[in-house]
Amino acid sequence: GDSVTQMEGPVTLSEEAFLTINCTYTATGYPSLFWYVQYPGEGLQLLLKATKADDKGSNKGFEATYRKETTSFHLEKGSVQVSDSAVYFCALSDGVGGSQGNLIFGKGTKLSVKP
Amino acid sequence: NAGVMQNPRHLVRRRGQEARLRCSPMKGHSHVYWYRQLPEEGLKFMVYLQKENIIDESGMPKERFSAEFPKEGPSILRIQQVVRGDSAAYFCASSPDRGSYEQYFGPGTRLTVT
Fold first, then answer.
1. Chain B residues close to A51, C-beta within 8 Å
2. Which of B31, B35, B42 sits opposite A107 (nearest CB)?
């Protein structure tokens, strides 16, 4: 079945450092890909998305490019801030296919940014 | 436009009791998804409902768990005879239609079974 694998954390960075969180997926169809962020004690918020190959999702300085050839959707940010400390989840949805839009999540990567 | 609402935010139950979790989707959304997040794990899909219909319950445990989304009122996830292993965060998400790829999440209900 479909699955998402993302790098294990925790990841600890200094403020203004470059961030990469790797995410690869396995899917039978052509899924949409997402990054969600979860701040402590809160629900998930959609950070960015890409619905087809070569699409780049971006938001709040974060970017991720849908790479069909490598089945990847790595999250990047050029300069992290303390306020970016959270858990980041990579997810896919194959839309109207077998899962009918259910999201399949990776295990999450906890990011801590130190001042 | 209010977001997805869940209540209670925290729920403590003793083993053997029933837990009832509520989810009110965003206005105009008729599709509801329930997910469970175990400690140190990602979210796992449980069930997908539309108004008065269960569309996909492939992620729901076969026993003790049930869900509904009535014509009026919130969606309810019911866990009967809770056990310690049910302790988790339960998240509800909603979307406007079946073809939408975006789901909007509520703040979750954290269930603790003592």
1. 101
2. B42
Interface size between A and B, measured as CB pairs under 8 A: 68
A100 pLDDT more than 70: no
Structure tokens at A40: 């402590």
pLDDT in tens, A28-68: 878 899 999 999 878 889 999 998 899 999 999 999 999 99
The closest alpha carbon to B35, from B108, B99, B101, B86, belongs to: B108
Cα–Cα distance, A109 to A104 (Å, whole number): 15
Q: What is the mean pLDDT of residues B32-52?
A: 90
**Banded pLDDT at A95 (limits 50, 70, 90):** low
Asked if B12 contacts B114 with a C-beta cutoff of 8 angstroms, the reply is: yes
CA B76/CA B89 separation, integer angstroms: 15
At residue A41, the pLDDT reads: 79
Phi and psi at residue B90, to the nearest 5°: -115, 120
Q: What is the SS3 string spanning chain A? A: CCEEEECCCCEEEECCCCEEECEEEECCCCCEEEEEEECCCCCEEEEEEECCCCCEEEECCEEEECECCCCECCEEECCCCHHHCEEEEEEEECCCCCCCCCCEECCCEEEEEEC
Q: How does the average pLDDT of chain A come out, rounded? A: 91
What spatial distance separates the first Cα and last Cα of chain A, rounded to whole Å? 41
